[in-house]
Specification:
six-stranded antiparallel β-barrel; single chain
Length: 92
């Protein structure tokens, strides 16, 4: 996760879809280039104050982005549609 890009703004969004394949977890979020999201950003995924994982953005469209989830721990809970995703300016 340290190889990503530090966000240049603070934003929050929501997980729209989750795709699980072997060890890869890809999610689509409802924030994109119009919101300032950039490829490579490291974002945090959570639900009701519980840390669920990190998201590295791999593809950005105007209104949506796709990212790969890392550090997901089933004991804490899995990333699901409706989970919160946020970026904090200057932090990854």
């Amino acid at each position: 996760a340290s190889s990503g890009i530090t966000p240049d703004r603070t934003i929050s969004s929501t997980v729209l879809t989750v795709s699980r394949n072997n060890d890869d977890v890809l999610v689509e979020i409802n924030a994109g280039s119009r919101d300032g999201v950039q490829e490579g950003w490291i974002m945090t995924v959570g639900q009701d104050g519980t840390f669920l994982g990190r998201l590295q953005v791999v593809q950005v469209d105007i209104n949506r982005s796709i990212g790969k989830v890392t550090l997901e721990d089933p004991k804490q809970g899995l990333v699901v549609p409706g989970s919160s995703v946020y970026a904090v300016k200057g932090r990854n």
